[in-house]
Specification:
- This protein is mainly beta.
- The chain has one helix and twelve strands; from the N terminus they run αββββββββββββ.
- The strands form two sheets. It has an eight-stranded antiparallel beta barrel.
Amino acid sequence: MKNKILLFSFLFISAAASAQTDISFGVKAGLSSANMRGDAVDNLSSVLDFTNGMITTKSRTGFYGGVFVDVPLGNDLSLEPGIYYTQKGYELRGDLNIKNLGFLGANATSQLQADYIDIPLLLKLKAGSFYVQLGPQFSYLTKANLKSSAGLLGINLLNNNMDVTTNFNRWDMGLTGGVGFNLSKNFSINAAYDYGLQRVDANKNVNAYNQAFKVGLTAGF
């Protein structure tokens, strides 16, 4: 099903681009603040045990960047497909017992570092120097690492990094939307929100979904 959707999107973009002579290209990059909604704490239950201590979640701050094509559909409406590399995931803080290591961490942190290739297909509506964007987004997980560390009295007692890619679905699907402001003809600032619609857990036992806020700069050509 995902392959058919991607193929249809590619054919639609190709047809729209071939019918237009004033398409433009651009690059977009910035910072992302990602976490998960739903049962985020339970999402890593296959690799972590939680003690009775307080466990809190925190967003992972990362980077995103990529390229896009702007295909005019009317005076103020255009289609903007793109492809981006985005760092997602989240962080747990508290007392974590890491399986197979036999270690009970004090002041421990465990950060899920999930790297995705995002493929959004956005409708862009312009209103003067402002614009809004909204559309579906397909994402492919390239790799997921679980980086755990713990310390006591300022001493680093644990620093471990394990590959947990197989614990998560390779494909994700969601909605993305945002706003932007044109600083000049070729440069703009933008902010967007990604809302995942598919469970990230490979076994689909946990109701955890990706979400991310992104702020960045756009340069058109």
